[in-house]
Structure formats: structure tokens, C-alpha cells
Specification:
The complex is a heterodimer of chains A (about 400) and B (about 290). Chain A has twelve helices and 13 strands. By secondary structure, chain A is α/β, with parallel strands linked by helices. Chain A folds into two domains: about 220 residues, 3-Layer(aba) Sandwich (Rossmann fold), CATH 3.40.50; about 150 residues, Response regulator (Rossmann fold), CATH 3.40.50.2300. In chain A, about 55% of the residues are buried. Chain B has one domain. Chain B is built from eleven helices and two strands, in the order ααααββααααααα. Chain B has a two-stranded antiparallel ribbon. Chain B is globular, with a radius of gyration of 19 Å. Chain B starts with a helix and ends in a 10-residue tail after the last helix. The chains are: A alpha/beta (about 400), B mainly alpha (about 290). Chains A and B meet through strand 7, helix 7, helix 8 and helix 9 of A and helix 1, strand 2 and helix 10 of B.
């Protein structure tokens, strides 16, 4: 990355010196400061790293669209600790005078960040954290999100379950914010279509002794099960579900994170699990093919969902700077420009809702031979209802 | 809950309890018998799981990987005792807490550097990959029954070694009066190195046999640590029999509570501990006066 920055500097120096003969532009001599608040250590380190890689790849590919402005990254490790978020956000805003602040991965950190940054000068772009509140009651003109709201991947799954003829389900998740929001979104469409939730099981976080709950599910004999788990919990749950003999007998549905970045560890146990998400590695469109090839070439490992979201964050910055011809000093204009963009994402084009959350397609996927294969569209151009957002 | 489901839940509870015993047994030896407060005990469980994953990637042989991992864990335990722990026998528990908390950080950092932060998994060994039908829907994996049997076997062996053999007698004697045992011509230092090594190996072994059933993730050691202390305290310091009964009790109570009273399931184990300590302040089978 160092090499890349120096190349950018060189390019911009050239442009600045060329511009020197004509009218000197104020914009061109100051770098655009991008503060990065991602977890580079701790449990979410891999996610933070992928997000940063994706963003840098996008800005590198579109360096020619920055009108001579070069990018100065100021990277801060959040360690995925909500208690540190306000302090880091304040420092990026007040001391470093960042134009953009990118982050975080963890929803708790997002809340701590937004407490400080809502309605302030820097434009915040959230490349992962999906807490509904960030584009709901906590929405703000200067806050954008390029990932998803917790509501988005789960809401269409209620209808998907009904379409498959499942009328009675058991829902299950860890008892914390994102899990509750996911189950509520599923229930919203499932109950509206006449489905019945036999039991809602909330497991204390971060307990992973799931056997007793799965036995309980077996005794209730539902048509299907809908769950939200992610990371290590998702691995353990899917393995336990299979080990207790339920997979193949009671279909397992989930928010896409159940099988995202976990398939190698889950092995055969994940075969046949059906999930909804705004991306799938094997998505068949030219933007995705090009992105995956470029990413693998640049970083030596396959891209994942978090890399895509980081990439789209980079695209959003580059395209906004391009439209404004490098001059982003007027925040109102910058926000207006960002709102109007259509992002040519590897997940498919998306635009922003009034609360600045992506209006995007949610794909229906099933695990086949250790991969999330797209089997259909769960919802086209799905917009988060942005409940509680007072903007516009 | 019909009777068949009740039996499955009971089996779940016993199986969880037996695994808990295996993790906690090393702690009983080290904390209960030797009096060393080793907070890094959970890290040893984590090390076992990561080691078996690592060697399984290399060899594709679960049994071989398990044996290598256990042997390495024993070596690691001996190394830690010789270089760090043995300096602390005469110090108070606070110094031991400081050292072993530091070890947790070191092991977590090493895990992150060596093996990364993604969740990992080990497949169940081919030979034990079948399952038994219990009800029309529920199956029980053979591997889990095998693990339960293995834990039972180890429990018996450990009980016999501590209570019925000469070396067990020396260990118990060392705990009640270190100097006296030394005066009688026993190399107590060597003995304690061995016991500490065995404690580490038991924790790592628990990680090894659990690996195919769990997800191997950063921080997995800390989750089991507190439950292990609960088991040792309920059972009574230094009692293998106590730890065994306590582990089964915790396993069964936790399993049924999570289904029957989900609202309080996260604290039920601690309520159980509080009630038992109110009635028997020394724990169920304390070996100390």
C-alpha cells in the first residue's frame, strides 16, 4: 500500500505542477483525509482487514477520477470495542480534521461513533455495522451506509419461508440487538402472510451449548427453523443441528451471516441451508467477476462480503469526488451528490434510501458443495423502512 | 416434554457434564490439589483445540493429531511450570492471578498470529461419524457418545491415581505439608512439575476431543474457564469425586434450565453454586479440613 500512496502523490504532484501554469486550484493541493475506524485486532480483525482492502482497491482503480486530489488514510484500530469508539471518532474529527470517516464493523461501535459524529462536518460511511438504528432513529444527513440494515436480509426470508409452504416455524438467535432485530424482521413478513411462530428461542450471548435447544426444536416439530447466528456461533449451531439429525428433516433457514465466512469450518453440515443476503461469492455479473479477479490479484486471497462493502465505500467516495471535480468543501453539495449516485457494486447496482441505506436486492442462496449458490431473488430493490428516521 | 425428549435432554446434560468434567479435572488437580490459581487453564483448552486442528491439516489423521497435541501440551505444561509457576508456590494467590492472566493475553495473541481469527473446524473421525436414532426425529452422534465414554474412563483413572496409588498419596501429602514431604526424601518439585503438566494436558485433551463438536474460535478458552471454576468450587477443593458430581450436576441443570426456564438460564449455574455453598460452604466433597 505504501508504494501505491507514493505513486498517487507523484501523480498529484505532476498535476499540481501542470495546474500551476493555469489558475491555481485550492482543491488540488490538499489531500482528502479519510479516517478509518475498523477492527484490525481482536475477533473481527479479518473483517476490518477485508473492508480496508476493498476500499483501497476501489480508490486505487479510480485514482484518475479524483481530480488531482490524493488520499491520506488515517487508520485507527477500534478493536471492536464500543467503549473506545467515541474517543477515536472525536480524535479523527477534531484533531485529524478528516473529511470522511469510514467504519465500523461492530454495531455497538457504530452507536458510539454516531453519538459523536451525527450532524458534524465529516461524512461518515458505515461499511458493515447493520444496527437498524444507524439508518433509523439515529439517521443523519452526514451518515451513509454501504452495507445493510439488520432488517434487510431477514425480512424477505419470512415470505420465502411461506412460498416454500412452511407455515409453522421456530426462530432462534443470541439474545442481543442484531439477533433480535433479525428475528423481528423475519416475523414481520412471516406473520403478515399468515405464518405462525411456535417458539422464539433467545440464547444468552455468547453461549454455544445448543444441543438442549435443538432437542427442544425437535420436540416442537416445526415446518422449518429460522435463525440468526454469525461467526463461531454459526459454525457451532449448524454443526449441532446436523449432528442431532435435524438437517434434511426440518429445513434450516437463516440470515445470510449463518453461512458467510464459515463454510470451511462447517463442512458438510451446512449443505442445504437456505439463507438471504445482499451478496453471494458466485454472483454472476461482470462487475463481480472483475472485482473478484482484481481483489485476488491485489491481495492474494479471495474477496468476501466485507471486501465488497469496503469496495463500494471506496467507489462512493471516488464517484462523489469526481462529480464535484475534486472540490468537496461544501458539505451540503457533497451529501446531495452522494445521495444521487448509483453505485455499480459487485452485488449489483444500488442507490440510497432517504435514510442513506442501500436500496438493494436480497438474494436467496443455498449451500451446495461448500458454496453459497444463488437460487433466486428473495426481494428486488428492497428498501429498509427507516422507522424512526426524521430526515426528509 | 414427552418422556423420549426428556431422556434425550438428560443425555445432552450428562454428555455436556462429562465434557465439563474433563476440562475441569485439570483445574481440580492444579487449583484444588496443588493450590495454584491458574486462570490460563481455559487457554490450555483452546491450545488443545487449535493444535489438533493444525496437525489434522498436516496429517489428515485425527488420532495421530490428537496424540501429538496431547504430548505437546504435556511438554508445554512442564515448560510453563519450570519457567514461571514454580516461582510462585510461596507467593499468595494475587501474584498467581497476575501471572496467569498475563498468560491468557499471551496465548490469545499467539493464537491470532499463528492461526488467525476465522472460526475453524475439524471433521468427526470417519470411524465414529455415524449416529443412532433416538426418536423419530432426533439422532445422537456416535462421536458424542464416544467422548462421554472417554470422559467417564478418564474420571475413573484419575480417581484411582489420586486416591489409590503411591504417587497420588504423595501429591495429596504435598498439598497439606510441602516441607514435611520433602524431609521424607521425596523430590516434591519434580512431582509438582509433573502434576502441573498433567493438568495442562487434561485441559488440552478436552480441547482435542471437543474440537470436532465445536467451532474453534478466538476466546473459546475464557468461556469455559468460569464454568470450570464453578465446577471445582461446587465439588469441593481438591476432590476428583466432587468435581465429577459437580460437573454432571452443572451439565444437567444447565441443559434443563435453558429449555424450561430460559429467562434465568444464564444465571442458573451460579444460583446452584450459591445454594450449595450456603448449605455446604466447603463444597460437596471437600478433601480439606
Amino acid at each position: 500500500m505504501k508504494k501505491h500512496t507514493s505513486l498517487l502523490t507523484l501523480a498529484s504532484a505532476l498535476i499540481v505542477s501542470l495546474a500551476g501554469w493555469s489558475a491555481p486550484t485550492a482543491a488540488a493541493d490538499k489531500p482528502i483525509k479519510v479516517g478509518v475506524m475498523l477492527p484490525f485486532s481482536g475477533v473481527y480483525a479479518a473483517l476490518g482487514d477485508a473492508g480496508r482492502n476493498g476500499m483501497k482497491l476501489a480508490l486505487e482503480q479510480h485514482a484518475d477520477k479524483l481530480h488531482g486530489r490524493n488520499i491520506e488514510f488515517i487508520e485507527m484500530d477500534t478493536e471492536a470495542r464500543p467503549d473506545r469508539a467515541p474517543e477515536i471518532a472525536t480524535s479523527l474529527m477534531s484533531q485529524k480534521k478528516a473529511d470522511f470517516i469510514i467504519g465500523p464493523v461492530h454495531s455497538g461501535v457504530a452507536m458510539g461513533m454516531l453519538k459523536v459524529l451525527r450532524n458534524k462536518k465529516p461524512v461518515v460511511i458505515i461499511p458493515n455495522a447493520g444496527a437498524n438504528a444507524a439508518t433509523g432513529p439515529w439517521c443523519a444527513p452526514n451518515v451513509f451506509r454501504t452495507s445493510f440494515s439488520a432488517w434487510q436480509p431477514s425480512y424477505p426470508m419470512g415470505k420465502a419461508a411461506l412460498d416454500k409452504g412452511y407455515k409453522k416455524v421456530v426462530t432462534m438467535s443470541w439474545n442481543y440487538g442484531f439477533g433480535k432485530e433479525s428475528l423481528a424482521a423475519f416475523e414481520e413478513s412471516f406473520k403478515a402472510g399468515g405464518g405462525k411462530v411456535l417458539k422464539k428461542i433467545m440464547v444468552p450471548f455468547p453461549k454455544t451449548e445448543f444441543q438442549s435447544y435443538i432437542t427442544d426444536i425437535a420436540s416442537l416439530k416445526p415446518d422449518a427453523v429460522f435463525v440468526f447466528f454469525a461467526g463461531g456461533g454459526a459454525v457451532k449451531f449448524v454443526k449441532d443441528y446436523n449432528a442431532m439429525g435435524l438437517s434434511g428433516k426440518i429445513p434450516l433457514l437463516g440470515s445470510g451471516f449463518l453461512t458467510e465466512g464459515t463454510l470451511t469450518a462447517q463442512g458438510d453440515a451446512a449443505e442445504g441451508v437456505i439463507t438471504g443476503l445482499h451478496y453471494a461469492d458466485g454472483l454472476d455479473n461482470p462487475a463481480n467477476h472483475a472485482f473478484r479477479a482484481d481483489y485476488e490479484k491485489a491481495f492474494g486471497k479471495p474477496a468476501d462480503l466485507y471486501a465488497v462493502q469496503g469496495y463500494d465505500t471506496g467507489l462512493l467516495i471516488a464517484m462523489a469526488v469526481d462529480q464535484l471535480k475534486g472540490n468537496i468543501s461544501d458539505q451540503g453539495k457533497l451529501i446531495q451528490t452522494m445521495e444521487s449516485l448509483t453505485i455499480p457494486s459487485p452485488r449489483g447496482d444500488f442507490t440510497f434510501s432517504r435514510a442513506h441505506n442501500p436500496i438493494q436486492t436480497i438474494y436467496l442462496r443455498t449451500v451446495e458443495n461448500g458454496e453459497n449458490r444463488v437460487i433466486g431473488v428473495a426481494a428486488e430493490a428492497l428498501e429498509d423502512p427507516a422507522r424512526g428516521c426524521k430526515m426528509k | 416434554m414427552d418422556f423420549a425428549i426428556f431422556l434425550v435432554q438428560l443425555l445432552n446434560g450428562l454428555q455436556y457434564g462429562l465434557l465439563l468434567f474433563l476440562i475441569a479435572s485439570g483445574l481440580t488437580l492444579v487449583f484444588g490439589v496443588m493450590g495454584i490459581l491458574n486462570l490460563a487453564h481455559g487457554s490450555m483448552y483452546m491450545v488443545g483445540a487449535y493444535l489438533v486442528w493444525y496437525f489434522f491439516q498436516l496429517t489428515d489423521q485425527f488420532l495421530l493429531s490428537a496424540l501429538i497435541s496431547a504430548a505437546l501440551a504435556l511438554g508445554l505444561g512442564v515448560l510453563i511450570e519450570k519457567t514461571l509457576i514454580h516461582r510462585l508456590y510461596k507467593r499468595n494467590h494475587l501474584d498467581q492471578v497476575l501471572l496467569t492472566i498475563g498468560m491468557i493475553f499471551v496465548f490469545n495473541a499467539l493464537q491470532s498470529i499463528l492461526w488467525g481469527d476465522d472460526p475453524l473446524g475439524v471433521p468427526v473421525p470417519e470411524l465414529l461419524s455415524g449416529s443412532i436414532h433416538l426418536t423419530e426425529l432426533v439422532e445422537y452422534p456416535v462421536y458424542r457418545l464416544f467422548v462421554a465414554a472417554l470422559c467417564l474412563l478418564l474420571a475413573g483413572a484419575l480417581y484411582l491415581v489420586i486416591n489409590r496409588t503411591r504417587i497420588g498419596m504423595l501429591i495429596r501429602a504435598g498439598e497439606s505439608n510441602r516441607e514435611m514431604v520433602e524431609c521424607l526424601g521425596v523430590n516434591i518439585n519434580q512431582l509438582y512439575t509433573l502434576v502441573f503438566g498433567a493438568g495442562v494436558m487434561l485441559a488440552a485433551l478436552a480441547g482435542v476431543v471437543a474440537a470436532p463438536m465445536i467451532s474453534i474460535v478466538p476466546g473459546m478458552g475464557e468461556h469455559v474457564l468460569i464454568t470450570c471454576f464453578v465446577v471445582v468450587v461446587i465439588g469441593g477443593m481438591g476432590s476428583i469425586k466432587g468435581a465429577f458430581v459437580a460437573a454432571l450436576l452443572v451439565g444437567v441443570v444447565d441443559t434443563f434450565a435453558s429449555v424450561l426456564v430460559p429467562g434465568v438460564s444464564s444465571m442458573i449455574v451460579y444460583i446452584l453454586m450459591a445454594v450449595i455453598l450456603l448449605i455446604k460452604p466447603e463444597g460437596l466433597f471437600s478433601s480439606q479440613k
